[in-house]
Specification:
Blueprint: E1 3-7, E2 10-14, E3 19-24, E4 45-48, E5 51-54, H1 62-71, H2 76-88, E6 92-100, E7 103-108, H3 112-119, H4 130-144, E8 146-153, E9 165-171, E10 176-180, E11 197-200, E12 212-216, E13 227-233, H5 245-270, E14 276-280, H6 282-304, E15 311-312, E16 315-316, H7 323-341, E17 355-357, E18 363-365, E19 367-370, H8 375-397, H9 401-404, H10 416-428, H11 431-448, H12 450-454, E20 457-461, H13 478-503
Parallel strand pairs: 3-14, 12-13
Antiparallel strand pairs: 1-2, 2-3, 4-5, 5-10, 6-7, 6-20, 8-9, 8-13, 10-11, 11-12, 14-19, 15-16, 17-18
Helix pairs in contact: 2-4, 4-11, 5-8, 6-7
Amino acid sequence: MNEFNIDGNQGYYQDADNLISFQIGADTPGIIDIDKFNNLNLPVLYNVGQHKVLIKGNTNLLPEEIQLMIGGNRLLPELIEKQMRILYGQGPQVYKKGFEKNKLIRHWEEKPEITDWMDSWQPRGLQDSAEHFFMKTIRDFYYFEDYWIKWKFSKSRRTNGPLPVIGLEHVDNRRCRLATGKNIDLTDDPVDQDFQTVVAGNWQYGNVRKFKIYKRFNHAFPLQSPVAISYHKNDSVGKVYGENKYYAGIKEWLTGMNRNPKYINSFLKNSLSAKIHLVIPVEWVESVEQKIRDYCEENKVKEDAGKTLIKLNGIEIGVEYKSSTRDKYIAAEIKKLSSFLSGVENQGKLYATYAYTTADGNPVQWKLEPIDLKYKEFISSLTDYDKRADEVTLAAKGLDASISSISKEGVISKSGSDLYYNYIIYLHNLSPAEHICNEVINYAIRINFPGLYKQGYRVGFYNEVPSKQEDVSPNDRLQNNMNHVTQQVNELKSEVNKIASQIN
């Protein structure tokens, strides 16, 4: 496969054996600074019918961007799953708030009214069980620091009939945006209360006819609509939407981490062939252009006479000059050069190009410049960057190595005490995340079970704090339990072998 690409004054030629970069003229081509476009003042509102939609990110595709950046990282997907598992613990359970010795504590209790209602979601037609609902909510929180919930209400919600809230459904974070029918002045910062509508749809394609309009859940009048969508977030300073501050802080590091494997693989793929950089003099290109023009004029005469038109290097040049013809000629010459650079049958052969001297006495000729690829230095620099990026990523996440199981030089933890105390500290700091992830279910309890809510009943994630091994009786320690299980497996294996031998 031969590939020739030219863009302005630079380009490359690649075949099965060689990759040759080239430039026309000795000056270095200019480089466009893409970063200068990153901070343009883009509009913050899209019009969807009569609604003005507040966009997410510069292109309204911030959730997709975060999903791709985190999903394409070698560490973060499993790291976030580990955070999810820790926060979720043993799942949603009912507790009653209370005080003991002036300390706020939770009394975990069985409350069939609440648990039976949560267990009824799927049988009543909702898409997920309560357990899957919470897992999706937690995942959105750790990916985006916000989430969207669809409320399903009963038809008799206003007539003291059955439970007003049938259940809750998680909505894909990529689909929902806040909207308003107000004429908002963009010179003022919009506030959350301005947006009382939710527009849902596929924003990558923007088919207005397929967007759905929902009332935003109103805490003051929760039963006004049969269906509503609520928005929950970790507040950010000066912004209506929640912001994944972790992602915003290390975005550039993630970009480098995600690209590094491509850089290394591309280098390894092409390093055996990409050893030549070709400098083509402008004068030579100009002479080629003039030659083509001359042949085009000659072809005009031949065409009028009905004669066969001249080809140049096997290239049909026609009767009108085209820059693409010049590029084909250059590609043919580089292909000829490449064929002489490799292959055992080319040993001892000679490749010649035009070379001449200008009126000023300066030589004009093609220059073949060998490229010092510096294999070791290049790979080492990329791996050093990877190590530093790992440190930044984990430090920003706030997960100690004893919890994340990721550390320098493969060291997971210094001791069991490190793991124990770091885990306790991490659990203690989960309160804000748990509150945000559970505020929707607890408000639903407030609507469906106002009496229980006033008594202090809530739903939270049950996490049992493990005991230190020295505080556990020897017979109940983890290692002894593992040894006992291993012994049982070995005994079972021995019995199976006896039966097998009897059969044989």
